Amino acid sequence: MEASATPEPVLDAADRHLVDGVLTKQRRALAKTITLIESTRADHQQRAQKVLAALLPHTGKAIRVGISGVPGAGKSTFIEALGNWVIDQGHRLAVLAVDPSSSVSGGSILGDKTRMESLCQREEAFIRPSPSAGSLGGVAEKTREAILACEAAGFDVVIVETVGVGQSETTVAGMVDVFVLLQLPNAGDDLQAIKKGIVEIADIIVFNKADIDERAAEFARVQMRTALTMLRTASKNWRPPVLKVSALAKSGIPEFWAEIERYRKTMTDSGEFSEKRRRQAVAWMWSLIDSGLRHYFREHPEVHSSLPRLTRDVAEGRATPGAAAYRLLDCLKHQVS
Ligand code: GDP
Description:
There is one protein chain. Strand 5, helix 9 (about 185-195) and strand 6 (about 205) form a beta-alpha-beta unit. By secondary structure, the chain is of the alpha/beta class. A seven-stranded parallel β-sheet has the order 3-2-4-1-5-6-7, sandwiched between helices. The protein starts with 12 loop residues before the first helix and ends with a helix. It has three domains: about 1-55, Single alpha-helices involved in coiled-coils or other helix-helix interfaces (Up-down Bundle), CATH 1.20.5.170; about 60-270, P-loop containing nucleotide triphosphate hydrolases (Rossmann fold); about 285-335, no CATH class. Helix 2 (about 25-40) packs across helix 3, helix 2 (about 25-40) packs antiparallel against helix 7 and helix 13 (about 300-315) packs antiparallel against helix 14 (about 320-335). The protein is built from 14 helices and seven strands. It binds guanosine-5'-diphosphate (GDP). The site of guanosine-5'-diphosphate has 15 residues, from helix 4.
């Protein structure tokens, strides 16, 4: 990553200690940094931004892989098999999660201690469940920052796991280099993914559980390849490959990783790899501006006092939504001008 144009932040002793800990690959310091990032307290947020600014020059070196699939598709079994394999190849792996349902259910996709048991034991792996509070936007923002912290701590493979619900796939695809869709070899699952437009954002499609019925898996693979020829895909230089694996039997894992490496090389050679990261960083800035403005708007005293009345007027047909919205937005305009 290029040196930042913004000046090096002044850190107090505790935060300097945290930054040094992350840079010297101490997992405890990394965990504490992510806790700071996830905190909703305003003073913690300020500290987190300073710590991240100090870490920024040391980020960007990992391959960021998103893995999505419906519950039961085998994501955690797959990540465990893949994780152990990539660590055996000499990598260090961080696994993060974006799980919008965790704020509703109180659980989280990586929260269950029985998941990824063997991976948890390994020194070269760092596994962090999804923050359990906040909207998808809030969770995503924190995950993006956690990716940077993991990279600064020397993890060269970062996996972001997400469940196939709502907008979470698009959100995760927007923060990773390569987005993988894990599918089950039955027609219902593929059709759902095609209908929801998720196949179009996938860079690699994997049919898991090929051990159960090899022929069904091959049939699903061929059908998906055919469907892909009719769909728009994300890059003109990359046609998403469709693979079969068995996460349980640990088969197809090296072949999968070879596709990740091929993706990185193809996209780097065409210049798209860095272009995609640049685009993602700018989109991230705008999403923070949007959410910041919304917050600023809601906190504005004049908006705060007239919002309930105007909301009632709109609901009961006494004011048009347009008139009410412009009137509220005008409160900010007066402040700005
Ligand atoms: P997740 O909800 O997507 O994380 O799915 P899990 O990894 O928890 O897997 C759901 C179930 O499918 C578990 O009982 C796994 O043992 C099983 N499973 C996962 N991968 C495979 C596979 O390749 N073959 C078979 N036969 N079962 C699998």
